[in-house]
Amino acid sequence: MARIEAPAGQQKVVIQRSGNICAYPECKAELVVNARHAGDKDKAVGKVAHICAASVGGPRFDPGMSDEERGKASNLIYLCGTHHDAIDSQLHYHTVDFLREAKEKHEMAVARGVPYSMGAVGFEELESVCNYLSINGDTDVVEEIGLDISLEEKIELNRLTDVSREMIHAGIAKVMEVRGFIRFVEETRHPGFGTKLAVKFKAEYYKALGQGLEGDEIFSYLCGVACENSGPKDSSVLRAAAVATVTYLFEICEIFEHAEHTAA
C-alpha cells in the first residue's frame, strides 16, 4: 500500500516549528544542507513522520482519529532519516506518548530560542527574508488597511494561542526595524517594495487557507515560507527575521483577519 503523505501545508508547519532540527531526543541533527552557490537553494533533508499512522496497519494507527486529524501538524514530527526509520520499526519503545512528548519538548525549545536570536536581526537578515518574496512575481495592487484594533484583539480574532502569541511578542521588538528597512529599500532601490512584499504574503496566506490551515498553523506556515526563500544559509537569526517580518505584516493588518465576519 502506498504511503499516505501529510498535506504539504501541514508539513511546512511542522518543519518550521522544528527549526530544521531533528526532534528526536538528544539528536539535534541539522536537517538542511545550505547552498554553496547563489544560484542554488538550501536542501531540506529531514523527513516528516506521522505519530499515529495515516492508514490502517501503519505504526501506532489510531482508529479514533479522523483522516484530517491524522494529517494535522499536531500529529506530525520532523526527524532525520535515521530516527524516521527507527520510530516506525522499533514500536515498543517509540510509543505515541514518547513521540508526542519528544515533539512538544523540541518545538518548545525552538520557540524559546526565537527571542534570543531576535536581538541579532539586522538589515542583512531582513533583506535575505524579504527580497525574494517581494521582487519576484507579479505586483498586484494592495488595498491599504488601517490598524483599527489592538494587537491582542487581532490575536484573539484569529484564534491564535500562546504558540503564536509568544512569537508575535518576540517579533514586535523588531517591527520598527522592519519598517525602517522597507522604507530604506523603497527610497533607494525598489519603489513599492512594501506593497510587493504584502502581495506575496497575502497570496501565501490565502494559499494556506485553501489548504485548510487555521490559526497557529497559518502563522507557522507563513514563517516557513519566509525561511524557505531567505538565501543561501539557514540560521536561527534568519528564522527570527522571518518571524519579525510576518509579525510586521500581522500588526499592520496586511495578513490575517482584521475584522469580524458576519455569517450569512
Could you please describe the fold and organization of this structure?
With 264 residues, the chain is mainly alpha-helical. It has 11 helices and 4 strands, in the order αβββαβααααααααα. It has helices spanning 8-18, 67-70, 81-87, 96-118, 123-135, 151-157, 162-172, 175-188, 193-210, 216-228, 236-251; strands spanning 32-33, 43-44, 47-50, 76-79.
**Which sequence of strands runs across the widest sheet?**
1-2
Averaged pLDDT: 86
Strand proportion, as a percent range, falls in: under 5%
Distance between the termini: 43 Å
Strand tally, please? Answer: 4
State the secondary-structure class.
mainly alpha
Poorly predicted runs are 137-147
Radius of gyration: 19 Å
Query: What string gives the helices and strands in order?
Result: HEEEHEHHHHHHHHH
Number of discrete helical segments:
11
From the spread of the alpha carbons, the general shape counts as: globular
The main pleated sheet reads as: 2 strands, antiparallel
What is the helical fraction, as a range of percent?
40-55%
**Assembly category:** single chain
SSE arrangement:
Blueprint: H1 8-18, E1 32-33, E2 43-44, E3 47-50, H2 67-70, E4 76-79, H3 81-87, H4 96-118, H5 123-135, H6 151-157, H7 162-172, H8 175-188, H9 193-210, H10 216-228, H11 236-251
Antiparallel strand pairs: 1-2, 3-4
